[in-house]
């Protein structure tokens, strides 16, 4: 059973939090999603951890059921504010017990931002291909003037289907989401769309997703990585040039004492491809950081 609640960010944005209803005495884990996803995509990971950990996830602003300020410019530092606000809520619910933050892509970057601002909230971070680009990559992206293929793809994304089953069939038949395990893909669709009179429509608008992709190369979190004072595990899938998988090792080099884990049989959607493996890593990290 998953309980749902709403909490404000520091900017007053209403964020929806999912509590996977374990026993409060267990180690809390905060699961942090990627651009265009939502908190419930972690349902299979939370299921694997249910017996040993108290899992939470949440929807970033403009994703899932969380709010979105009018004319917001997709500043990634605000995603860090969202992660920090929810981390504070969870640690307070567990008598100030530091949490394990486990993030995917954008969600990993936002957890790093939160941990830089309040390291006392975190016992460890497990980050799957976080979007934190080094300066030379940021400069190259911002100076080319070439449109982002991810943003272009988001703007072209189909936003309506006649039914949930049609959406699942569509996504499971072609890249990139066809690599997701069926239960993760089903969670993505069932909680990422809302019913309307003639079918279903996506909750995270294609334009909001596109703007988030476009701004992902601009935030300067890289410069602060040496200041991070939380144990960090960096995970990459297959290492392909000019992808987040290739940058994970560079990030690890910037963080003193970090651990690099490479799963070369997985891609950028690794936590959704193999939820059990990602859950097992979180449990292993908890065991060595106790």
Low-confidence runs of at least 5 consecutive residues: none
Largest sheet strand order: 1-2-4-3-5-6-10-11
Q: How would you describe the shape? A: globular
Helix count from the secondary structure assignment = 11
* Beta-strand percent range: 15-25%
Q: What percent of the residues sit in helical stretches (DSSP H or I)?
A: 25-40%
Q: What is the annotated CATH architecture?
A: 3-Layer(aba) Sandwich
Can you tell me the CATH superfamily?
Alpha/Beta hydrolase fold, catalytic domain
The H-and-E topology, N to C, reads as: EEEHEHEHEHHEHHEEHEHEHH
Average pLDDT, rounded to a whole number, is: 93
Outline the biggest β-sheet: 8 strands, mixed
Q: Specify Rg, calculated over alpha carbons.
A: 18 Å
Reported by name, the CATH topology is: Rossmann fold
| Global structural class | alpha/beta
What is the CATH level 1 assignment? Alpha Beta
Q: Compute the number of strand runs.
A: 11
Oligomer: single chain
Rounded to the nearest angstrom, the distance between the terminal CA atoms is 27 Å
Domain unit count? 1
């Amino acid at each position: 059973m998953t309980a749902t609640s709403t909490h404000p960010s520091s900017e007053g944005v209403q964020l929806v939090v999912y509590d996977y209803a374990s026993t409060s005495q267990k180690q809390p884990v905060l699961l942090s999603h990627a651009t265009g996803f939502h908190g419930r995509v972690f349902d299979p990971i939370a299921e694997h951890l249910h017996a040993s950990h108290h899992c939470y996830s949440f929807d970033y602003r403009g994703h899932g059921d969380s709010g979105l300020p009018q004319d917001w410019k997709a500043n990634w530092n605000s995603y860090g504010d969202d992660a920090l606000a929810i981390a504070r809520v969870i640690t307070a619910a567990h008598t100030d017990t530091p949490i394990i933050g486990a993030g995917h892509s954008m969600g990993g970057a936002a957890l790093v931002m939160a941990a830089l601002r309040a390291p006392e909230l975190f016992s460890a971070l497990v980050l799957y291909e976080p979007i934190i680009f080094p300066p030379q990559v940021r400069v190259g992206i911002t100076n080319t003037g070439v449109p982002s293929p991810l943003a272009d793809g988001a703007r072209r994304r189909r936003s309506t289907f006649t039914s949930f089953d049609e959406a699942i069939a569509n996504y499971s038949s072609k890249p990139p989401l066809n690599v997701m395990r069926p239960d993760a893909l089903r969670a993505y669709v069932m909680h990422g769309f809302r019913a309307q009179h003639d079918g279903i429509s996506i909750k995270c608008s294609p334009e909001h997703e596109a703007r988030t992709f476009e701004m992902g190369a601009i935030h300067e979190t890289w410069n602060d990585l040496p200041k991070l004072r939380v144990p960090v595990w960096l995970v990459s899938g297959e290492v392909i040039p000019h992808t987040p998988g290739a940058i994970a090792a560079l990030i690890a080099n910037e963080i003193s004492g970090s651990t690099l884990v490479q799963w070369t049989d997985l891609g950028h959607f690794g936590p959704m491809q193999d939820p059990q493996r990602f859950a097992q890593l979180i449990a292993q990290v908890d065991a060595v950081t106790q």
